């Protein structure tokens, strides 16, 4: 019974990956709209784009990790 | 176990996590600290690739670079510019260290994409050590260069006085969460990608969905190539950002 | 998971919790969290990082930096050389233009001198020719005058002779004086 509950929990935790997807899309979309407004400033800010994406994605990876832990390690 | 159950039903005949097993290269004994394992093999291959690329590739020392030499120069210029731009000119003594991190991660990531390869960077043991190295370096450098003024990093002087203690607590927590997120981001991304590829590969055994699954593997593989580079880039640039905090702690 | 496995596999699964990470070739749980392997991985990682660090900092990076600096130097040198050559080319062009202008002036001068000379020569020749022509004409005139005067003399002599003969034929005595004066009068008239 505990195993099934763990699987349900893993599925719930995987929702977090979708939330991270929203976050990454937000970062990239805002970067793009900003870059279209001021294209000359865009190349200097790509590093910030990647840092932002990395931070947003890391949280999704945490959610994925929780899912994996529930699947395999509990 | 799940893998056995699925194996019997004819679907998934392997466990998606099996690719991460560390096993001795010779014989079947237990994995001790100094056992030569597949970790050893793939790390040796990483060293070999780095040496081939950066040492053998640049051995021509020609003014008009060969292909390998221009790749080596590109990597050199890329990281050097990143260190200069993000961490500042006074971070240049750390350039070889950051270059080592970048080259190790990027080469190990790409070697891990070879089918049947063992991805060393997908293990928390590796990424935690890398992240802790950065964390310890940054903290030590911060205290050595700035003394106690380094603690000013946590005291946000631009915020209202009443808010500062609260912000200080948040800053301290975020400072200590850095190595956690830094390491889990790298290993988690790679593990996730590789596990997803393996899951799709498991579905390929079912005839009806196998074309879809093969197409999905190809797509994931493309994404993984991107992720391999971007994770190395992000790890390196975050190292630079943390280093900048250590060298110039004032906000 | 564990609930649907047979009793035989219950044991290794229990063992896994005690630290066993692989059962029957399959990973148990997440291999990443199998702490038995961490020592091994960290050991080899440390060796790898140290090797890469020394290879990079001792050999690769100084070499690439040297190559880049050398290339930068070569480019700078080449640019300077090109600048130099360009200046030289400009100077050469200037010199060429100057030479061209002087040469043109020289040529003009030479042409003018030649023209002058030719004109002088021509004038000389014309003058000489004129003088010669004048001399020849004078000579001719003189000759003509001489011929004319001798012809008149002859005519006078012939006329006097003829008159004397005619007078003699007619039976008269020829008076020389009268005849010559009469001839002279006639010839004048």
Largest sheet of chain B: none
Strand count of chain C: 2
What's the tally of helices of chain B?
A: 7
Determine Rg of chain B (CA atoms, Å): 22 Å
Strand content of chain B: under 5%
Subunit arrangement of the protein:
heterotrimer
Distance separating the two termini of chain B? 52 Å
Q: From the helix content, strand content and strand pairing of chain C, which structural class follows? A: mainly alpha
Strand content of chain C: under 5%
Overall shape of chain B:
globular
- State the largest interface: B-C, 58 and 51 residues
Description:
Chain A has helices at residues 2-37, 46-73. Chain A is mainly alpha-helical. In chain A, helix 1 (2-37) runs antiparallel to helix 2 (46-73). Chain B has one domain (10-247). Helix content of chain B is 66%, strand content 0%. The radius of gyration of chain B is 22 Å and the shape is globular. Chain C has 189 residues and is an all-alpha fold. Chain C has a domain at 154-188. Chain C is 83% helix and 2% strand. Chain C has helices at residues 7-17, 38-169, 176-188, and strands at residues 22-23, 26-27. In chain C, strands 1-2 form a two-stranded antiparallel sheet. Chains B and C meet through helix 1, helix 2, helix 3, helix 4 and helix 5 of B and strand 1, strand 2 and helix 2 of C.
């Amino acid at each position: 019974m505990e195993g099934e509950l763990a699987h349900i929990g893993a599925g719930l935790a995987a929702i977090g990956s979708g939330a991270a997807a929203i976050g990454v899309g937000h970062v990239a979309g805002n970067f793009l709209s900003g870059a279209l407004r001021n294209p000359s400033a865009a190349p200097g800010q790509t590093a910030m784009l990647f840092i932002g994406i990395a931070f947003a994605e890391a949280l999704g990876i945490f959610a994925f990790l929780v899912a994996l832990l529930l699947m395999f390690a509990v | 176990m799940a893998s056995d159950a699925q194996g019997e039903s004819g679907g998934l005949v392997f466990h998606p996590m099996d690719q991460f097993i560390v096993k001795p290269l010779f014989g079947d004994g237990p994995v001790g600290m100094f056992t030569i394992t597949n970790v050893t093999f793939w790390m040796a291959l990483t060293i070999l690739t780095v040496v081939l690329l950066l040492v053998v590739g640049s051995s021509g020392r020609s003014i008009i670079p060969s292909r390998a030499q221009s790749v080596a120069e590109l990597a050199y210029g890329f990281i050097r510019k990143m260190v200069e731009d993000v961490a500042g000119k006074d971070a240049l003594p750390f350039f070889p260290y950051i270059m080592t991190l970048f080259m190790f991660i990027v080469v190990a990531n790409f070697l891990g994409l070879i089918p049947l390869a063992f991805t060393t960077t997908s293990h928390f043991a590796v990424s935690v050590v890398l992240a802790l190295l950065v964390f310890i370096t940054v903290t030590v450098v911060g205290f050595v260069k700035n003394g106690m003024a380094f603690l000013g990093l946590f005291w946000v002087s631009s915020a209202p006085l009443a808010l500062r203690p609260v912000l200080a607590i948040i800053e301290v927590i975020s400072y200590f969460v850095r190595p956690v997120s830094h390491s889990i981001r790298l290993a988690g991304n790679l593990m996730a990608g590789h596990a997803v590829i393996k899951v799709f590969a498991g579905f390929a055994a079912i005839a009806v969905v196998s074309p879809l699954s093969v197409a999905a593997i190809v797509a994931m593989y493309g994404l993984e190539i991107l992720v391999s580079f971007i994770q190395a880039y992000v790890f390196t640039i975050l190292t630079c950002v943390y280093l900048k905090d250590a060298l110039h702690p004032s906000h | 998971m564990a609930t649907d496995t047979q009793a035989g596999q219950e044991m290794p699964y229990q063992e896994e919790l005690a630290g066993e990470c692989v059962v029957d070739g399959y990973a148990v749980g997440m291999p990443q969290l199998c702490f038995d392997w961490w020592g091994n991985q960290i050991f080899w990682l440390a060796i790898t990082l140290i090797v890469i660090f020394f290879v990079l900092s001792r050999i690769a990076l100084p070499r690439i930096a040297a190559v880049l600096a050398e290339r930068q130097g070569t480019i700078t040198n080449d640019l300077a050389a090109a600048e130099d050559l360009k200046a030289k080319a400009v100077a050469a062009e200037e010199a060429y233009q100057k030479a061209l202008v002087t040469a043109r002036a020289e040529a003009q001068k030479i042409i003018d001198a030649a023209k002058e000379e030719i004109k002088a020569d021509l004038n000389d020749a014309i003058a000489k020719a004129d003088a010669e022509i004048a001399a020849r004409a004078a000579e001719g005139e003189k000759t003509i005058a001489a011929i004319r005067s001798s012809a008149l003399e002859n005519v006078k002599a012939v006329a006097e002779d003829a008159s004397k003969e005619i007078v003699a034929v007619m039976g008269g005595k020829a008076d020389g004086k009268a005849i010559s004066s009469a001839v002279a009068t006639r010839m004048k008239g």
